[in-house]
Specification:
By secondary structure, this protein is mostly helical. It contains 4 helices and no strands. GO terms for molecular function: DNA binding; transposase activity.
Length: 86
């Protein structure tokens, strides 16, 4: 079975409709998206409390960027020790 792909704008629209009062079951029937998928979108696009309004996706992106930067710092430290010896 071929998996459907939805763009970010469509996902955001569905989440906003849900927040405005439309039930997940109604949205599922109207747009042909499974209820489980809609619940995942709502969870992923909803801000986490006490986190400056960041969504779980945004937090994951920040963590990935942080890991990349930490790796770059380690590489630079190693390079600095190599050049300091010369």
């Amino acid at each position: 079975m071929k998996q459907k792909r939805y763009n970010q704008e469509f996902k955001q629209t569905i989440v906003e409709l849900n927040r405005s009062g439309t039930s997940v079951s109604d949205l599922s029937r109207e747009y042909g998206v499974s209820e489980v998928t809609i619940y995942k979108w709502v969870k992923a696009l909803s801000p986490i409390e006490n986190n400056r309004g960041l969504t779980p996706n945004e937090i994951a992106e920040i963590q990935k960027e942080n890991l990349r930067l930490e790796q770059e710092v380690e590489i630079l430290k190693k390079a600095m020790t190599i050049f300091a010896r010369k």
